[in-house]
């Protein structure tokens, strides 16, 4: 007969292990050739996941990212160059798919936008500070007000 405390411990361990096993997923498919896999990872690091948008295609677990990695492996197997694969992805999804889009008239705002926002913020801060400095000046006392203030101060002295 198994002691009750051992049985409880075993059931607890099984209960804790079941959700982990249920959440386990199939390993991501890898190319049969290690060189192809390395090349696929290098190419997919240059591309943005269209679902996540803040992850590279190589690091994303989205279904679309897996499909695109599979497509890249297929194109590598067909003998396409890295540039041909990148051009195919850009033709299909636009410059947005690249982490470092080329500098051209359609992407100037993308490249220069942060600097323009920084300059606009600095300009706005300068205008605000100058306006605030000019408004902070308190008006001086007139001669009549100054005489009355001195009279009040002299009257209150002990």
Task: Walk me through the structure.
- By secondary structure, this protein is an all-alpha fold.
- Among the domains are: about 25-100, Cytochrome C biogenesis protein (Helicase, Ruva Protein, domain 3, Orthogonal Bundle), CATH 1.10.8.640; about 105-135.
- It is built from 6 helices and no strands.
- α2 crosses α3.
- It is flat.
- It starts with a helix and ends with a helix.
- The model has no long low-confidence stretch (mean pLDDT about 85).
Key descriptive features of the protein:
158 residues; mainly alpha; Helicase, Ruva Protein, domain 3; flat
Globally, the shape reads: flat
Please describe the biggest sheet, giving its number of strands, its sense, and whether it closes into a barrel: none
The unreliable regions are none
Q: Which strand-content bin applies to the residues?
A: under 5%
What is the CATH T-level topology of one domain? Helicase, Ruva Protein, domain 3
Question: What is the strand and helix layout of this fold?
Answer:
Layout: H1 4-23, H2 34-45, H3 63-77, H4 82-93, H5 108-135, H6 143-156
Helix pairs in contact: 2-3
